[in-house]
Amino acid sequence: MKIGYFVGHFPYPNLVNTKDYIKKYAHGGTEIAAYNLAVNMANRGNMVDVFTTSIDSKSSVELYPNLKVHRHGTSLKIASANPSIRLIYNPLKYDMDIVHAHSPIPYSDLPALLYAKRKKLPFILTYQFDGVETGGSFARNAGVSLYNKLFIHKVLKSADAIIATTKSYAKESPFLRRYLDKIVVIPNGINIKEVTTPLTREKSREILGLPQNSEIILFFGSLVEYKGPDILLKAFKKVKNVVPNAKLIFAGRGHMDSQLKETAKQMNISKDVIFTGFVEDNVKPLYYKAADVFCLPSTTLAESFGIVNLEAMAAGIPIVSSNLGGIPDIVKNGENGLLSKPYDVEMLAENLIKLLENDNLRVEMGKTGLKLVKNYTWDEVTTKTEKLYRELLE
């Protein structure tokens, strides 16, 4: 099968851990999911072409077994995006059997739709999240607003199948719920071996320089508004009043970094809040293993799935997250974690305290998470996606 993937940014494996890479070529869960799906499809013997943008003005083609990555040079940057006009016409030189775009990213799904119509091929769209018109720069918000008004429904209406990562999100999204008849639920996945370590909790803490006698809450992700790090910081202040030894780790980077540090200082909790900055992939498992509780207090539908929740489950730790979007399909309240209302500082603090004060509950929820996460491997995701391709081609 010849598969054509269209995605705005596609990770550079050899650059991802280098300094300032994310500033030059941002990518998150959508792009990581596209990368893993493409690699796994190629590993199964499919011929895969990825059409994406470049980190600079130079176009290039990267060759791997059964996989070609066509990077199209960019001459401008809009917010964190590196769009390329070449993505519209260059892919037309190549022949595919099926077209699959990762959305909502207008400079990938619109070229994919154009390609599918020109070549008269099945068009599949993986819809990762709603484009929210708040947060970020003016240019970013204006672009999202324009896309939502002019293009998103044209793309969704034209798709032969729409992949949603969870059933809950498909029903809650103001865009997706109009197309439930063509929705196929296929979650994102993780590579369990890459996010786990055989080292003990104590050894992980020793390597990271973390205290052995503290209760540690871990946040992993970009420090941006929709992930709610400011809500977590306010809740942590309340946690400290009940659990004096508690520590909070913000693992990741983002434009809220300085604001959060200043807020922690004003709350007189700076010594108990750790900002790691960028964490390299080989160190990430140590933070999960060192933590007692993982927390993702997202606030908007821009958080459709939360791959970090899966990573925490793979590490065997319970989760406190938001009852929002597709998260309840992953974090089952009372089983592998506890859910809080978005923006509800009091409820978030209560859930964190409940887990930090109950060792047995943490252990049981961690064990449940380990069982559930086996349903989210990339092998499972690839099998379901490949089945969908064959059904559409038949």
What does this structure look like?
By secondary structure, the protein is of the alpha/beta class. An 8-stranded mixed β-sheet has the order 3-4-2-1-5-6-7-8, sandwiched between helices. The model has no long low-confidence stretch (mean pLDDT 90). Helices cover 40% and strands 17% of the residues.
Core attributes:
394 residues; alpha/beta; eight-stranded mixed sheet; six-stranded parallel sheet; 16 helices; 14 strands; 17% strand; globular
Indicate the topology.
Layout: E1 2-6, H1 21-24, H2 29-43, E2 47-53, E3 60-64, E4 67-72, H3 86-89, E5 98-103, H4 106-119, E6 123-127, H5 138-150, H6 152-158, E7 161-164, H7 167-172, E8 183-185, H8 201-208, E9 216-220, H9 229-242, E10 247-251, H10 257-266, E11 273-277, H11 284-290, E12 293-296, H12 307-314, E13 319-322, H13 327-330, E14 337-340, H14 345-356, H15 359-372, H16 378-393
Parallel strand pairs: 1-2, 1-5, 2-4, 5-6, 6-7, 7-8, 9-10, 9-12, 10-11, 12-13, 13-14
Antiparallel strand pairs: 3-4
